Predict the structure.
Amino acid sequence: MTPTHVHEPRAAGMHGGTRLQKVEVGERSLASYFNVVPIHILEALDREAERLRGARILHLNATPYGGGVSELLRSGVPLLADLGLDVDWHVITGDEPFFRVTKSIHNGLQGDPNSISAADRDAYLSTSARNAELLGDDYDFVVVHDPQPAAILPLHGKGNAKWVWRCHIETSVPNPDTWEFLRGFLSDYDAAVFTLREFVPPDLPIAKIAVIPPAIDPLSPKNLPLARITATQVLDWIGVRLDSPLVTQVSRFDPWKDPLGVIAAYRLAREEVPGLQLALVGSMALDDPEGWDLYRQIQQEAAGDDRIKLFTNLTGVGNIEVNAFQRLSSVVLQKSLREGFGLVVSESLWKGTPVVAGRAGGIPLQLADGTGGVLVDSTEATAAAMVELLGDPALADDLGRRGRARVHEHFLLPRLLLNELMLLNELSGQAAPHVLTDPVCGLVLDPDAHVPTLEFEGVRHAFCSDECRRRFLMRDLPVQTGGGGATADTIVDNS
Ligand code: UDP
């Protein structure tokens, strides 16, 4: 998840004088989720929170808005407070060179071959040291998100807290130099959390690893129920008429999301589906020159075709509009070539809309066992899947309905909070009550549901999907530890 950055040092401004900037999130009640989220998840969440009640938890990241991490914190932090935990969300601050370096680190962790210079390293360290001085000491747990604040632990010292590094990035094959630089700051962390088992980088110097896929907030403006008539009016107002089928991709303008490939696939599909419309909805950061370059390329590619519509957050397409696009499109595309998790997939499925998406990162887990849509590996396959779904509304409906059921069971926010609190309880040495989890992907399972199972060495394992069971059976699990092969737990000891 790539953040939009806050440039100006504002640490002393908003809150606490000499402390890091605190993000105010208001109050939210978990009770609102009672008829939305499976009850077994809410009950287990309550039990886990009870054992941590009063614990002081700090979430630390780089930005209060823009990008998936801040969305998750904005929704999750007030719910943790409602569960009786004493939670703060603070953001670090930095200047332009700092965030240029952290973007390079981010890219390097995703495999970009460009290394970071000695001057870059100095910029990263000096800003990290300044932020470390502003960090308070009053926490039982500090959860540090992504690379931007990662060096704060060694620069500040652990104190009495347990520290967790929550990596939201695809880090399976990092640039060796970049990874070597970052991993030097990680050895004192008590645990690391990755979105998928495949993302655990080589030689991670952290003893405990947890695999926790992210989730969407079903009650946020982007995902809340929106009457069809209202959604239609919203799209009408921005100039999208639903007089012919609409396909949409919602994502940052980033080469890995392959927006030009989306246009190529749309052009192929349009030969079979006359009148087909394509909406490309992308968020832009003012400080992201690469994004603007790609935006201009997309504009050129789309020029002359008034059935391709381009929208950005900067022209007023926000959460409600994204909600309407995901709800009213016949098919949502997410033609990622490389992906972290791909929250947009769950967002679309939650609205009952089938998805045609690249076989990358966390997308196959969301579409496991053919639920929710079609996984594709090429432009031609993307076009063919679109044409098939557009021509067979019953199939599209069925996929969308089953996709929504899978999101309901596995990808709503309280499940994510439950996984996280299970880890914190484990770190504080509290014996966990039994919560059933898939040993491959980490998802929490309903103990009363009929799910795929497998007896292995006297232990009965349960899985979220046949696909996870197959992977377990084939030992098709990327190495978690320093070369040992597959392990069967999603909170594993890496020491
Ligand atoms: N998003 C948005 N407006 C846009 C483009 C993206 O609100 O124009 C949101 C999208 O709905 C999702 C998030 O940004 O919630 C992107 O998360 P995802 O995991 O799909 O991709 P990332 O950008 O983190 O790689």
Q: What stands out?
A: Residues 1-2, 67-68, 71, 222, 250-252, 281-283, 313, 322, 340-344, 347 surround uridine-5'-diphosphate (CB under 6 Å). The first helix runs from residue 39 to 52. Residues 228-410 form a domain with the Rossmann fold fold (CATH 3.40.50.2000). The radius of gyration is 22 Å.
